[in-house]
Design goal:
The protein is an alpha/beta fold and about 375 residues long. About 40% of the residues lie in helices and about 15% in strands. The relative contact order is 0.17.
Amino acid sequence: MIYLDNAATTMHKPPAVIDAVVKAMGSMGNAGRGANDASLSASRIIYDTRDMLCRFFGGTSPKQVVFTNNSTESLNIAIKGLLEPGDHVITTMLEHNSVLRPLYEMEKKGVRLTIVKSNEKGTLDIADIEAAISQDTKMIICTNGSNLTGNYIDLKPIGELARERGILFVVDASQTAGVFPIHVQEMKIDILCFTGHKGLLGPQGTGGMYVREGLKIRPLKSGGTGVKTYSKTQPEEMPTALEAGTLNGHGIAGLHAALKYLEEEGIDAIRKREQELMWRFYEGVKDIPNVKVYGDFDTKERCAIVTLNIGDYDSSEVSDELLTEYSISTRPGGHCAPLMHEALGTVEQGAVRFSFSHYNTDEEVDTAIEAIRELSQDE
């Protein structure tokens, strides 16, 4: 199978990641729940991974790195743990349901929500974000890269705008963490939400958030922490405050190995290769009759994603044909990005997403181009 669904999850992991998970499964105990070697080894690997993530994202302290299951959990913690009835929050049409659905929940509880529109290419104008700010605006939350179009969002000017106005800046880095450089201090990011199973090349069930020092968040859940057992309330110290229950130590061990791999290979080199593959595919399909490509390809910096439709074909039918006839794995449908589909005019048809990894080859890309050419002739 030619796997071109890396925006959903990177299926091909570095061998060291797999080895680390297997080793942890046979040796790791429960971090913070004992003084035995198995428990202590878990504590060490978890702390080391916090430290690596803190440095990776330009943070100030490892204790500000909180482990979660994925970006969805991180975003829920940030949104539900900071917003109150009467607050105003600004987001964009580019967002994934991991942002939108929690915001809709909070809207029902009295939070005022403004959604900044995009143009037909799925891009934003920071002037529209600035125009939406009011006296009660508490948070701006946006993605760093669209999972549907691949459009990359420059965070620094938004972060600077938010910091100047005293507004919290929350970022969904699901599509960019591990591929694009992210520095939370330089970009003025208050909360960075990320997942481990995409660009970070770690196992599923790993993710986290970086929380600016001094920012207090209501816990989404409470329970066992291994410390302050006799307290009736969740400890307030970070990261324990937001990490009730046993962590996915085995997965975090794999994420630790993935971060080492990224440091050794260099994310700039990885991004360059993925973008080369993406541009090769885009140039090969953009002029094929009946093919429509979505997104902004006027700028070089973008996620390694090309999303398209063929004539009036339902996107699921195209994706099925690609898999059954050409052994090419893609993602059709709505991609959990309903407002972006409204902007693109693809609510009913959906769209077929091709997303590339540095593990893909030129030959695989060329096979996918030829498959689209052949399918377009059937339209």
